[in-house]
Specification:
Blueprint (H helix, E strand, L loop, with lengths): L2 E3 L2 H14 L6 E3 L20 E4 H4 L7 H8 L2 E4 L2 H10 L6 E4 L4 E2 L5 E2 L10 H108 L5 H165 L3 H6 L8 H17 L6 H63 L3 E6 L10 E6 L6 E2 L5 H18 L4 E5 L7 H14 L4 E5 L3 H5 L3 E9 L2 E8 L13 E6 L1
Parallel strand pairs: 1-2, 4-5, 11-12, 12-15, 13-15
Antiparallel strand pairs: 3-4, 5-6, 6-7, 8-9, 9-10, 13-14
Amino acid sequence: QDIVCRTESEAKTAINWLKTQRAGRATFLAIPLLRHSNSITSDSLKGVPGIIGLASDLVSVDPEFDIVLQMNLGRVVVAKDMDSAIEASRRLNCNWNRIVTIDGELITPGGSLSGGSLGGRGAHLVGRKGEIDDLNKTIPSLKATVEASSEEIKQIGIQIGNIESQLSQLSKDVSQISIAIATSERDLNAAEKDSQRLLSAIAESNAQYDRLLVTLSTLEIEAQEWAAKVESGRQEDTSADDAIAAAVEQIRNLTALRDEARTRAVSLEVNVGRLSEKLNASKRTLTMNKEALVVAETDIRARELQREMAGSQFADAEAMRSDLQEKLIQAKSHLSDASLRLKELSDKREELRLESFNRSNVLKEMAQRKSSTLQHVHDTELRMARLEVRQAQTAERLLQEYGITQEEAIAKTDVGEVDKETSTEISRLRREIRNMGQVNTGAVEEFERLTERHDFLAEQRTDLESARESLLATISEIDDSTRGAFMETFNAVSLKFSELFERLFGGGNTKLVLTLPDDLLETGIEVYAQPPGKKPQHLSLLSGGERALTAVALLFSFLAVRPSPFVLLDEVDAPLDGVNVDKFVRLVKEFSADTQFIVITHNPTTMEAAPRWYGVTMRDPGVSSIISYKVPEEATESELDQAVVISQPT
């Protein structure tokens, strides 16, 4: 392989660098030094079976390197296989350099065949290079597969860890549920015992209550009997009163015992209800805990099955990873062998390149000798051409100056002698004649014509200068009057502008400032406004409504100083709010005494103030029409004698 350079200086620089660095040898192809070789054409390959074409036709390069392509591949024929190449070597009569096949076999014009196998992908450098490229392309995919498998193994490990943590948590939950179930069962047994004890106490209380009721009934009967006896005979002795009092006291005591028994019975019933509710709640909790225990056991079995599956996937991933690592090691080993073989072939190619370089040096030396000989011949031809030109010039000079031809001058042997002074005088006279050039016989007439033209132009120049002075004076006069008129108008507008600004804003201050006071013809005007409650600032720093209202004040100050018979206003009131629109409408009405206004607006307040309305509508698609409306005179104010036309495009 050769290195292509655009100039020979680049090639020499590269060779010197290789020498100084002791980096080996290389062959450089400088494009200006290359010569077109006798390459063959595609037509000479027609009719030969199995021929794909010329190698130079199968490779595309920039036009700049076409000579390099023709020199290296212009006589290389590409065949499909070895049989086609052998047949082509017999039938081709053109000046071919070598015939190569797709598999890398080579046939030279001397009849030698090169080919075989290197135990790899191909028996040539291109095949080995292709194999290395394929291996290099395979390595990233294998690395990506290994990384993907590692990532998958990592994810599976994370999932296994999560499952184990979930199993541990479920085990803890099962233990807690079991403890809760045991506690619930213990509470349930205690509640059942308390319930039985309370039921026994309730039964005993009910029996005592019944006995007390019987005793109370007996006492009431006795009391009634004693009361009857008291009523029938109050004359009996005092022992009967004592017996009655004792009976009444006994009745009172029995009544208290009855009430206490009732209260105790109610309390026992409440305790029985509370214990029954507690018993039912314990039963519900026990049922829920048993259901949760069943769900937890089912989840544990599912987690264990998932863990087994994850372990199987992890084992498969580990096996796949080991397989891919073995494949990667094999690929790297194969790549290392291919690289060694490529290095061997590269060294061999370097030896062939050095040999080719030496031969190229010999050819270049011969070419340089040929070029030197051709240059010598060219110089000789140039000298001969110069001598022929000098001979022709001398013959022409002899003919013009002496009236003789070259042959007559050569034949003339007796040449008279001329002294030096005569020769010098002849040369001087010839120079003067040449310097004089051609004689102009019409010089006098030309002088008279040019004199007349000069006088006419001088007179025209005098007239132009006088006209220029007159124009400059007129311009100066106009400038002076313009400055005066401008300052007069400026002062009047500034005064009116301040008045209208204070009227529209309800106060504040404004002023007009000249940007170039010393040059009134080139000056600009800046507007500074100070609305009420604000500091003075430039017009551009005001809000949209303030700028619009300031512009309205400035516009109507112009009309106040220099009234105009006709004014067209387009969406002037768009940025204004309701109050400022009313101010604008009043201002239009005031100035409509001297000026006719056409106002384009969408504001209803402005439209209501106009005596005539014009609008554009589209009743049918693509067809516009104008509608006009005149407000009755009684609906307008008397001061609107001039027409105010409002145009509202729709």
